[in-house]
Amino acid sequence: MPNTIIIGSGSYLPNRVIGRDFFLDSEFYTDEGVKIDKPVEETIAKFVEITEIENRRFIDEDLSNSQIGFEAAKIAIADANVDQEELDYIIYASNFGEVTTNGYVDFMPTMAARVKNKLGIKNRKCITYDMIFGCPGWVEAMILADNLIKAKVAKTILVIGAETLSRVTDPYDRNRMIYRWSGSCSSTSH
After folding, report:
1. Helix or strand run (H / E) with residue 12
2. 102 pLDDT exceeds 80?
3. pLDDT computed for residue 180 by the predictor
4. Distance (Å, rounded) from C-alpha 35 to C-alpha 31?
5. Average pLDDT in the 20-29 region?
6. Rg (Cα) of the chain, in Å, rounded?
7. Nearest Cα to 159, choosing from 139, 132, 136, 183?
8. Contact 61, 164 (CB under 8 A)
């Protein structure tokens, strides 16, 4: 049985840093829809105390989930020193797929297909596959890649995990202070 080895990795870290002051104009409500009467500053301070999340990263408005995945993929492919035309699969893990700045979710074409197109891959045998699986999606994508390699169905797979949850969170939910980040990580398995 072949071994699966991560031979390269890459990441994209958004430039835009959002601190606690970003949430000062927020109104937060309970799950039952009741406005939280505490001062917003107190809610934010408690959140930071519990989570230790002081800052988070946002992607710029002109970027998309597939674009940040593409940026990470370029780095991973270069780091792995593989010919991108030899990729058997591109597996893209995410919660919501491609989310526009107004919160519209677009699943077609798949994000993996969008990355393949942006990379300029001509190999028709390179299968693109989106894994909409929530937070553990990237790990599940790695498990799938491992299984495909061990089954000798594939030799080289690009796995991408990226998210833009900041575009779909409820503006009145205090938990959005957790999910307001966006980022990407990418690995190539062989």
Report:
1. strand 6-12
2. no
3. 44
4. 10
5. 85
6. 19
7. 139
8. no
In 3D space, the residue among 47, 70, 61 whose CA is nearest the CA of residue 102 turns out to be 61
Question: In the chain, how long is the greatest CA-to-CA distance?
Answer: 60
SS3 123: coil
Residue whose C-alpha is closest to residue 128's, from 108, 143, 146, 147 = 108
Q: Which position has the token pair 């999340």? A: 53
Among 24-33, 74-83, 115-124, 171-180, where is mean pLDDT lowest?
171-180
Q: Is the pLDDT of residue 185 over 60?
A: no
* 76: DSSP letter: H
Structure tokens at 48: 């930071």
Using CA atoms, how far apart are residues 84 and 151, in angstroms rounded to an integer?
A: 21
Report how far Cα 186 is from the mean position of its chain's Cα atoms: 9
User: Is residue 89 helix, strand or coil?
Assistant: strand
Q: Could you tell me the two tokens for 74?
A: 């370029």
Q: In what side-by-side order are the strands of the sheet with 89-94?
A: 6-12, 183-189, 157-163, 89-94, 127-132
Query: What is the C-alpha separation between 114 and 129, in angstroms, rounded?
Result: 11
Predicted TM-score (pTM) above 0.85? no
Q: At what angle do helices 65-80 and 111-119 cross, to 10 degrees?
A: 50
Cα 83 from Cα 155, distance rounded (Å): 12
